[in-house]
Amino acid sequence: MHMLGMSILLSMSSASFAELVVDASKGTGQAALNWSSEDANQLLNGDVSSSAEEVSPQGSTKITTSVRSSNGVAQHSAPKTVQVLNNSNYSNQPSVNARAALVMDGQTGEVLFSKNSNTAYPIASITKLMTAVVISDSRLNMSEKITLQQSDFSCSGCKSSSSTLRAGDSMNRAEALLVALMKSENPAASALARTFPGGRAAFISAMNAKARALGMNSTHYMESTGLHPGNVSSARDLGILVNTASQYGLIRQFSTTPSYDFNLGYRVLKSNNTNALVRNGGWNINISKTGYINEAGRCVVMHTTLNNRPAVVVLLGADSSAARTNDATRLMSWVSNLPKRI
């Protein structure tokens, strides 16, 4: 469980495991996530036992981070691919503003809600979820320092975007992945691809190869940030990706961090999650990623637990951030009231 307003200070240490210590008594506690190379490998490989305690508002609690699947079992290696079963026959389905949508049972692959779910659309920063999967699969040193270069702030054919990061900013690979997932910082996602073995071309090749391996047949990636409108996918394909990403403890933790203070040495960059549903803390959200460029509209993907059912929610092309949030809230409320599986 994440606490609203929680900030995490990422630093290097020789601790034997990664742990998150939260002072919950003040409501906006300070947290410290201590990393070593071994720690990062444990999170990526699923070697840490699933024994996390939840934050209690009554006092300080220690949370031991772990790799959690949708059923709470610690795992990561060889994540299962769930076949999407297009057999939804539920009545009284809510209307959604988004041009495409999918709600899928995260365990069985059963489609609970579908709207234009097989049509490929631009996906904007939802792209960064595949960026995170490729980084996690690569087993690169998460404590290695990455310094942002001017080339990380633009790419051929990409849309322009603003950023609170600057060329010359330095952070470790874990922080770069965190700021790319929770705050959707494009230069960080670009730098992750640039520093990949073989550079950006090899990284994009790995993204598309992973999509093919997962059966994401309507998906194609041009670059790692989502600023290129040629990054396209269908809601069905993204359902597969989200369910796969939910097997990675690192992605679960980083994509649902409500807030984080990045210590860049000469300044502190206070950052909040781009998903209001994560920031507000009212839903049990395990994976989250938002996205927006003009061609894509407002997008969001989530893995959540609703009425004890792991569920994947995908929304592409909503008219506004408010419409996107309203769509997601209606769909999750509707699934929460569906009869439980026998």
Automatic annotation (TrEMBL):
It comes from the Bacteria. Belongs to the peptidase S11 family. One of its GO terms (molecular function) is serine-type D-Ala-D-Ala carboxypeptidase activity. The gene is pbpG. Its EC number is 3.4.21.-. Pfam families: Peptidase_S11 (PF00768). InterPro entries: Beta-lactam/transpept-like (IPR012338), Peptidase_S11 (IPR018044), Peptidase_S11_N (IPR001967). Residues 1-18 form the signal peptide. GO terms for biological process: cell wall organization; peptidoglycan biosynthetic process; proteolysis; regulation of cell shape. This is D-alanyl-D-alanine endopeptidase. The active site is at S125, K128 (proton acceptor), S184. It comes from Acinetobacter bouvetii. Substrate binds at K289. The keyword Cell wall biogenesis/degradation applies. Residues 91-319 form the Peptidase S11 D-alanyl-D-alanine carboxypeptidase A N-terminal domain. Keywords: Cell shape, Cell wall biogenesis/degradation, Hydrolase, Peptidoglycan synthesis, Signal. The keyword Hydrolase applies. It is an enzyme of class 3 (hydrolase). Gene3D superfamilies: DD-peptidase/beta-lactamase superfamily. Residues 47-78 are annotated as: Disordered.
